Amino acid sequence: MKKLTLFLISCFCLISCDDELQERSNNVEFNDVSLLNSVVENHILPEFAIFRLAVEALGESKDAFIAEKTEANLVSLRSSYLQAYNSYQAVAKYDFGLAKDINYAQNLNLHPFNLNGVTDFILNQENQNLESILTQDRQGFPAVDYMLNGLAATDTEIVAFYTGNNAEDYTTFLSRIIDRIEALTIRVDNDWRSGFADSFTNQNGFIDIFVNGYIQYFEKRLRSSKIDFPTGKFDGTPSPETIESFFRPEESRGLLLEALESSRLLYIGVGENSTSLSSVLVGLGEEGLDAQIRLRFLEAQNLINSLDANLAQQVATDNSKMLDARDALQEIVRLLKVDLVSILNITITFQDNDGD
Amino acid sequence: MISNYLNKTTKAAPLAVFRIFFGILMFISIVRFWSYGWIDSVYIQPKFHFSYYGFEFIQPLGEWTYLLFAICGITALMICVGYKYRLAIVTFFLSFTYIELIDKTTYLNHYYFISILSFLLIFLPLNANFSVDSFLNKKNKANYVPSWTVDAIKLLLAIVYVYAGLAKLNSDWLLEAQPIKIWLRTRTDFPLIGGFFQYNWMHYFFSWFGMLYDLFIVFFLLYKPTRKIAYVFVVLFHVLTHLLFPIGMFPYIMIVSGLIFFEANVHQKILAILTKIFRLKGALLTTAKTANTTYAYSALSKKIIPPILLIFFTIQLLLPWRYLMYPNELFWTEEGYRFSWRVMLIEKVGLSIFTIVDPEIGKQFDIRNSDFLTDFQIKQMSTQPDFIVQYAHMLRDHYISEGIKSPEVYVKSYVTLNGRLNKEFIDSKINLANEKDSFAHKKWILPFYETIKGL
Questions:
Q1: Are A84 and A190 contained in the same domain?
Q2: Are residues A186 and A257 in the same domain?
Q3: Which residues on chain A are in Cβ contact (under 8 Å) with B204?
């Protein structure tokens, strides 16, 4: 036994001595709390604050339009809507806590929206139940898009819907869906500010929830909803009508870029010395992986920038370029879902079993 | 000499203690599995099960799976108290093994260990003493059993430990401290020693210690002067692994199994304590009448058991080496990986995207794995080629039933192994619909391009 102990100790001495020389970065401790704290402080709270302001502005523009239904007010309402839709892209990532419980993301941005359902809702106010899981596709930004851009070809004709025979119905529905966006946003924002941010940062296991949530957002809602479905990646038949902002399709690429950039910033972190997934990887000595992920983000951005601003148009003229952009996003998914998850030792499935 | 050895006897107490703890731990395992809802999520929810090659006739039982678990749990209790032992252990072995064979997604070395251990126990007189059987039927009661019955359990444990140790003699484990490094350095929140988990020397310490422990612990347990201290190591080692890694009941099973190495008087003390705690009749213990009786195998048993166990242990000794018959890196292809006590050796994460092509109209599309598999199955499937080809065949059959005449199935698959950057895993130009699953080497696994030296 003594001999063995001696042998053991000498082994470890040899190894650890040898190792002191090589040790570079491993003295940076991987600390979930500081990562989650930085995610909350530098991303979630400020991005929600910006979005909340944009949504409140949208509400005001809507009120102004209802008070005075002019083309000028429609244009201004539309601009508030676009502002809000763009800043929504940042908070869409945070499907945690109350946001997850109330299906915040599905209520705000399920596309393609359900045209027949919306028409039915407009004309039969007594049916209007926006709370049901079945009516998520009749509200949110896609429905607002329809109400502001899709009713007719020209602004004059659109305004006519709010002043004509069914003016009351159209106005009420527009008002209700915008109010609901605002109400849900205020609830979720308040949830973060009234304690959830704390539990998110300090409770055990949230690192797994955060990383899984981030990757799932990137794969399912950024890549799939915004690109895969229009290209027909999952059924072989392109369906351009599924793009975001269908009635103002020239905004669709912009929304995608907004979402991608905000995902990239979440990965690399903002501000000096802030902890981010990127800095954690570097701290663990995984500079190579970190550099690859950063590079892939930029490549994807470049490819998407080279697409037509109108993604539906791009699908129609040259779907292969869409598919290239899609593959570039998939490269990021691969690095996140395989390497990052492995290096950070993230539990992937919560239905997990014992291992050995 | 062999017949001499076979006639040697030893006290029956070690077998009784082993039986009691084995039974109760199995019962707890079943209850635990049930209470976590895993019967539902692992055996009932999935629409598709990954059967073991050659065991495709083992079918999932739907809601009846609960009954199977119930049988398993009840027989575990019967084993514990030693009631109708032979019937109980045979039924336990069959039901437990059936459960394990339903879906290899849940394969764990320790489930395999339970299966083969319970098979071995069928042939051992674990109810000879301190059991309901021996209490009800005094004729069955024996204070001595053939020595080989106790040694057989020791031998099986020795195989498990030593092979687990041998498997650690590779460059990833010893020279890179992988995958321990990955697992430890994200656990710096661990009480007391967590702060050290960020340091490289700690990763090497764990790796080397684990290797030496596995290789040598059995010998220290066999050697009387070191036995006690070795057992302290057994307890500490397994408690630590239990705290650090999600390995379920395994540590407890090994801690309790390790008791078998102690002399009979230690076991008699344990039995005496149990007698006191549960106010059992002293009669369960040795009485003057039975003091010198030896368990007698029937003539038939004497004839068939030795060859059965000889074959059993030969298989156990040879099976882990079958990987040598496959080309390419074992950790990468996992051909010949299971049933070999390769425990905690690899940290793998994979991503597999399947594309279906309808050659008749030239249409192609990707599928979503979550439409067919559970998250747990997706995770296991993505890193293991035999799962990938089975799944591809399931997809082929599914799309044939959807009206595609001869669907082609391709996969883009990427895997990371022990902290290396992900690499393409499966040849994406191969139509997996046409590839067969078999024990033969799967040529469509892409090369690893690196060497992990060692066994």
A1: yes
A2: no
A3: 12, 15-16, 19
Set of chain A residues whose Cβ sits within 8 Å of the Cβ of B364: 236
Same domain, A174 and A280: no
pLDDT for the residue numbered B113: 97
Rg (CA), chain B: 25
The owner of tokens 């514990």 is B80
What's the half-sphere exposure (Cβ side, CA atoms, 13 Å) at B403? 1
- CA nearest A36: which of A218, A277, A235, A259? A277
Last residue of a domain, one of A163, A178, A203: A203
Query: How far off is chain B from A210, nearest CA to CA, in Å?
Result: 15
A117 & A260 share domain = no
| Separation of alpha carbons A200 and B106, rounded Å | 31
Residue numbers of chain B with a pLDDT score lower than 70: 282-291
pLDDT, residue A26, reads 41
Q: How many CB atoms lie within 10 A of CB B63?
A: 10
Q: How many residues does chain A have?
A: 356
CA distance A356 to chain B (A): 5
- Where does a domain end: A203, A227, A250? A203
Give the residue-averaged pLDDT of A99-125.
92
**Are A64 and A81 a contacting pair, CB within 8 Å?**
no
Question: What pLDDT shows up at residue B445?
Answer: 97
Distance from CA of B366 to the nearest CA of A (A): 5
Q: Which domain covers residue A306, as residue numbers? A: 204-356
How confident is the prediction for chain B on average, in pLDDT?
94
**Do A176 and A306 fall within a single domain?**
no
Tokens of B222: 């066999």
Tokens 């190579």 identify what position? A288
Most B-contacting residue of A25, A210, A290, A354 (CB-CB within 10 A), to test interface: A354
- How far apart CA B383 and CA A258 sit, in angstroms, is 34
CB contact under 8 A, B422 and A334: yes
pLDDT bin (cut points 50, 70, 90) of residue A23 is: very low
pLDDT at A328 over 90: yes
Q: How many residues in chain B? A: 455
* Measured distance CA(B60)–CA(B48) in Å, rounded: 9
B447 DSSP 8-state letter:
P
Residue A19 lies in a domain: no
